[in-house]
Structure formats: structure tokens, C-alpha cells
Amino acid sequence: RHFKPHTLSEPEEKVVNLKDVTGSNALINLYDAITNRYVFKLKVNGKVQELTRAQLQPFIQGPDANMRAQAYQELYRVYGQDGPILGQMYQTRARDWHNENITLRKFKSAMSVRNLANDVPDEAVNTLLEVTKKNAKIFHRYFKMKAKHIGMNKLRRYDIYAPVARSDKPFEYAEAAKMVLESFSAFDPKIGKLAQRVFDQDHLDSEVRKGKQGGAFCASITPEMAPYVLMNYTGRARDVATLAHELGHAIHAMLASHHTTFTFHSSLPLAETASTFGEMMLTEKLLAEEKDESVRRDILFKQMDDAFATVLRQIYFALFEREAHAMVQKNASTDELAAAYMENLKEQFGDSVELSDEFKWEWVSIPHIYHTPFYVYAYAFGQLLVFSLYQQYKAEGESFKPKYLKILSAGGSEAPAKILADAGIDIRSAQFWQGGFDVLSRMVDELEKLPVDAKTAKGKKPTAAGKTKKAAVTSSSKGKKAKPAKGKTAKKKK
User: Fold this and answer.
1) Do the domains 4-165+294-434 and 173-291 sit in the same CATH topology, yes or no?
2) Phi, psi angle pair for 354, to nearest 5°
3) Which of 22, 144, 191, 286 is the most buried (most CB within 10 A)?
4) Paired strand residues for 155
5) Structure confidence by residue, pLDDT tens digits, 261-309
6) Which residues pair with 217 in a beta bridge?
7) Long-range pairs for 28-32: beta carbons < 8 A, 24 or more residues apart
8) Which option is the CATH number for 4-165+294-434: 1.10.1370.20, 1.50.10.10, 3.40.630.120, 1.10.10.10?
9) In a 3-state reduction of DSSP, which class is residue 2?
10) Cα–Cα distance between 338 and 417 in angstroms, integer?
11) CB neighbours of 240 closer than 8 A, spacing ≥ 6?
12) Secondary structure E strands in 298-445
């Protein structure tokens, strides 16, 4: 019913659907076909390797400063070769979005289309964007501090995800499951019991084996059935966090299981609430109990790296999309869009990070802005929502828990604004979103107290002060299963 004012007549809708088949849908498929065939060539240990983008990623986030630079340069050199073509495709996508949604369907703005799909008022999203811009300085503080910890005077854009501590402490799966269950039960015994149910029903597959799908996810099939969790557990601290994250999704679904099949799944803006909150509960427990400073440092820095990737980076993508869609309507060229993106990066990083010219093509390498315009702000919405909720939890204690459980129990039965308003939360309020950034600011405060570890600050430096040589080559665009205290992982698939 929310879409009724924007729904056309039946004959008009048929024409739009036919148009999409050979128009926007075909354009997106063409973008994927072009970019999926890219090959990146990188000299590793004296030997040139041909890599996919996924295979290039470890070098982008690796400990070697020169390799990070070369990997990034290779990534955007390849995309930059097709930059004018990919840019023209984006312009066409933006024009089509405007013609259909603003000219025909009469939406107020290009972003309003996504907001309605997310069932979130425009005012709330605009407030989120503005509060984020005002708090970019928190991340500027973080990047300046991180530079000291990896032995640099100033971070280059290549170094944003550089590891600070390289703890190799292993966590046995049974130990990880125990920690997660204990952290959930400490918050509320009901949460712990729901998580235990996933283990007891053999609905968690953690084993790494040949032919198994990578990554991790939680699948909620029906309200009556305990969700299934898939992950690949290798014993790293990050894997423990992934376990907490996916079990958080499972808990969310089980708390909402009294709703129908159509309404027990949460809406996109609230989809990461329980999962991210679960990670924060686990992190609090790990930091309270962990004595190894290298592990503690690893946890804290990865937490802030993830916050940057989820909050600031995604909001500035959305800000660029808003500007770019407006520019396209004024017939801006691809070069003008690339220049606007560089200005966006300069505002995002301030004086805390050195930018290189090749990053002007980063925007054409982001599939989301082609596939699902304005989708990306939902990541920041969910992350900041959890930070704000967590701050509320620390302030209110026991009285907060029933409100939090009520939010999860609502599933997708109401609009996010209504669900949160019933818990006393106003997502239109700048003060609420500021609460999330206050949590991030305190996280940086904690990191600033850490002494610089001479070992981690002594890694391989760039080839020149703040600069890196161009990549040496060019490229073309062509375990065993463990059990928790109770229950076990799903049986091995044949």
C-alpha cells in the first residue's frame, strides 16, 4: 500500500517491465560481464601471478606496504582503462532511475525510492547522512593514530586496512562456542538458550572442507524451524566474531517466530541489529578476559576498521550517489563524476590520509551503485543503530533488555521507525545517531591509550616517503569438526 501513490496503470507497468528487460537489467548484466572477466597481474615473490579481484584482496589488506600499494594501483588501473565505458553505463543507469522513478512514479528524489523500499522516512536518512558528516573527524583521529602504530607519519589510502597487530593465537571451536554462548547468556538467559538450540538441532556447519561454499550466512527458512548457520571456522579471533554474528541472526529470527512466514524476517535496516549486537557482547567479554595484549590490540583495531568500512565509507558512497545522480541530470561527463568522487574522498578523509589519483576510479568498481542505487546507507544505518542501542544498554542496564528483545521480536511486522519508536527510539533525532558516534569516539579513546608496539610499527615501509613505485607489471582486462559444550555442528554433507 505504501507504493500505491507511485504505481502506474497496468498497461504502463507492463511497458516499464518490458523496458527493464532490455534496458536497466541488461545494462547491469553487461557491467557484470565486463568487470567479472578482469584479470589483475601482480608480481609476488618474483613471479607474476594472474589474479581475480577476490584473490587480489589479501594483498590489499596485507602487512607489506609496497604490496598494498601495488595491488591497489593494479586494481584501479584495470578499472580505469574502462573508466569512460563504465562511467557512461553509470550515467545511463542514473538517467533510467530518474526517468522511471521521478518523472513517471513521482518520487520526491532519487534516494526516496530506496527509502520507501526500506520503509524508512526520508527525514531519518537525511539526519543520518548529516550526523555522519559531522563525525567524520572521529575517523580522522583514528587514521592519524593508526599511522603511528604501523610506523608511518601519515596513512596513504593504500594503508586503511593494514593490519596493526598480527596475533596468531588460535581459538578452538569448542572454546569459541562456549565464549559466544556465555556472552549471550550473560545478557539474557533466553538469548543463550536460543543460540544453544541451533547447536542442539545440528543446524550449524562450521567445518572447512573441499567443495564447501566460502563465507558465512544464516538461513531462516520458516518461523517454526530453527535457522541454519554456515561458516568456515579456522580458529582466528575473526572467526569467533563471525560465529557470534551469525548466531545473532538466528536469535533474531527465533524471537520473531510467532509471526507469519511473510512478516517474521526483519526489514533491511534492522536486519543486522541482533548480529552486530551479538558481536559487541562477545567483544566486551573477550576484552575483559583476554590477557594477551597482541590479541586485545588486534580486536580493537579490527573493530574500528570494520566500523569505518560499514559506517563512514558507506555513507560517503551514498552522498556521492546523491550528488552523481543530480550531476547526470545536468549532463555531467564521466571525468566530472570522477572529479566529484575525488572531492568526496577528500572530505571523507580530511587531512588524515594521503590520496592517490587512481582512486578517482574507485566508484566504477562498486557494484552496488549499479545494481541497487542508494542501498549502501542501510549498512551504516544498522551499525550505528546497534552502537546507539549498546550505549543505551550500558546506561540503562536491566531496564533496557525488555525493549531490545521487543525490537527483535517484532521481526518485519511493522516499519522500522514504528518498531523503534515503540521502544522509545526516534530515528529522526540527530541525538540518537550521535549516540552511535559517541561509542565510536570512546573506542578511539581506548586505542589512543595503547602504547605503540615497536614490533608492529617496524614493518616494511613504502619505497619512498608517503609514495610508492608503480606496480612492476601491467595487466589486462580480460578442519576437523569440533563440538561446543552442548550440541555439535551439522553433519558433514556428502
Assistant:
1) no
2) -85, 125
3) 191
4) 353
5) 999 999 888 999 999 999 999 999 988 888 888 888 888 898 999 999 9
6) 230
7) 28/93, 28/370, 28/371, 30/89, 31/86, 31/89, 31/367, 31/370, 32/367
8) 1.10.1370.20
9) coil
10) 35
11) 171, 176, 179, 180, 282, 286
12) 353-354
How far is it, in rounded angstroms, from Cα 258 to Cα 224?
8
* DSSP code of residue 357: G
Helices 273-289 and 401-409: crossing angle, nearest 10°?
Answer: 140
Percent composition of the chain: helix, strand, coil (DSSP 3-state, to 5): 65, 5, 30
Question: Which cell numbers hold the place of 200?
Answer: 542442539
Is 259 in contact with 223 (CB distance < 8 Å)? yes
Q: What pTM value is reported for the model?
A: 0.86
Would you say residue 465 has pLDDT above 50? no
**CA 63 vs CA 80, 81, 155, 186, 443: distances in Å:** 25, 28, 13, 36, 23
Query: Could you tell me if 185 and 191 are in contact, meaning their C-beta atoms sit under 8 angstroms apart?
Result: yes
CATH architecture type of domain 173-291: 3-Layer(aba) Sandwich (3.40)
Contact 78, 475 (CB under 8 A): yes
d(CA 439, CA 412): 27
Cβ count near 290 (within 10 Å): 16
448: how many CB neighbours lie within 10 A of its CB?
A: 12
Is 65:460 a contact under the CB 8 Å cutoff?
Answer: yes
Whether residue 113 contacts residue 125, with contact meaning beta carbons closer than 8 Å, is answered with: no
Give the rounded distance of the alpha carbon of 65 from its chain centre. Answer: 24
φ/ψ of residue 84, rounded to 5 = -60, -35
Domain boundaries, the chain: 4-165+294-434, 173-291
Q: Which three cell numbers stand for residue 356?
A: 592517490
The β-bridge relationship of strands 228-230 and 217-219 is antiparallel
Half-sphere exposure of 371 (CA within 13 A, CB side): 8
